[in-house]
Specification:
29% of the residues lie in helices and 14% in strands. The two termini are 13 Å apart. Strand 5, helix 6 and strand 6 form a beta-alpha-beta unit. Strands 1-2-4-5-6-7-8-9 form an 8-stranded parallel barrel, surrounded by 7 helices. It is built from 10 helices and 9 strands. By secondary structure, the protein is α/β, with parallel strands linked by helices. The protein has a single domain, classed as Alpha-Beta Barrel (TIM Barrel), CATH 3.20.20.190. Helix 5 packs across helix 6.
Length: 312
């Protein structure tokens, strides 16, 4: 059942809201998640890290960004960016994350994002509870476990992170609608060991693609793609995954066809420009992860396609 929300075919290309709808709403915030579900998005991709008191919260970077974080008095944070793992939940939620500094490099990437006050970093529990509401019974979750480069080789820490996150999901009975997702393929091994009932999604970005400004790099926690002797789809299949989630610029129709022949679904990220959306549709991907879900909706509808319904 978990994969039904990500499987394309028969006129369906799945639409996955990236961090909610980052292009137009504060990212990884309840306000953005509610917006996305309100416009018909039925799958959400988001990022989870742990606070010092071991509460799973939804935020992308391990450090709270100066470009997106304000103190209670409304001023942008200054100096060293605080690490989420060094703060309690209460300390994290004293800060505001409802807008971007328009003068920052990161802020200039998302000039259409709404600016809101009193927006806080949500707990994973907050989004899970939203997903349990009757009106969201069809909502699927693509939950990215963020791997701290400083703890990458700590098997005990990796086990604890997975156990804490999985317990939150199971406590709400959301295993049938959750896929566990990461750039850290070792983390996904741990996910399968602890939660075999939930599929795993393997993120990839080839080394020649530059890191996105203002965001944590995945290169230090992911596998050595340059050293692989098999294709990425085969590597994902051999690792035990059910979904391959490649960077938009790494997708070809041949690789999508190979992935499908191996029984994998393909959901590409982060697909924002109209030309890239069209290219992903032409390549035959099952799903499109986008900061601008409305753009994807428009492209799909213009081609007589949809993102909701039963797929083969």
């Amino acid at each position: 059942m978990q994969l039904s929300g990500f499987r394309g075919g028969n006129g369906i290309v799945r639409l996955i809201g990236h961090r909610g709808a980052r292009g137009v709403m504060p990212e990884n915030a309840m306000e953005g998640f509610r917006f996305a579900t309100g416009i018909g998005v039925v799958a959400l991709e988001f990022d989870v890290v742990l606070t010092r008191d071991r509460i799973p919260v939804i935020t992308h970077n391990h450090h709270l960004s100066r470009a997106a974080t304000r103190t209670a008095d409304g001023n942008w944070i200054k100096g060293e960016e605080p690490k989420v793992a060094d703060l309690t939940l209460a300390q994290v939620q004293e800060l505001e994350v409802g807008g971007l500094d328009g003068g920052s490099v990161y802020g200039k990437r998302f000039v259409d994002q709404a600016f809101m006050n009193k927006v806080r970093v949500p707990r994973l529990a907050d989004l899970l509870d939203l997903a349990r509401r009757p009106e969201n019974s069809g909502l699927h979750l693509l939950l990215e476990l963020k791997s701290d480069p400083e703890m990458k080789d700590d098997a005990s820490e990796r086990s604890d992170v997975v156990a804490i996150v999985v317990a939150e999901i199971r406590a709400r009975g959301l295993e049938p609608r959750t896929v566990l997702h990461s750039f850290d393929w070792d983390m996904l091994d741990e996910c399968r060991a602890q939660a075999p009932e939930m599929p795993t999604s393997y993120l990839s970005k080839l080394p020649e693609n530059t890191d996105d400004p203002g965001e944590d790099s995945s290169k230090s926690v992911g596998p050595d793609f340059a050293a692989m002797t098999v294709s990425l789809p085969r590597a994902v299949r051999d690792a035990g995954g059910q979904i391959w989630c490649p960077h938009v610029h790494d997708v070809t129709s041949a690789l999508v066809a190979e992935a499908h022949s191996l029984g994998l679904l393909v959901c590409s990220w982060t697909v924002n420009e109209a030309a890239d959306i069209e290219a992903m549709i032409d390549a035959g991907v099952d799903g499109i992860v986008s900061d601008y879900p409305g753009r994807v909706q428009r492209c799909l509808l213009n081609r007589g396609l949809n993102w909701i319904g039963s797929a083969g």
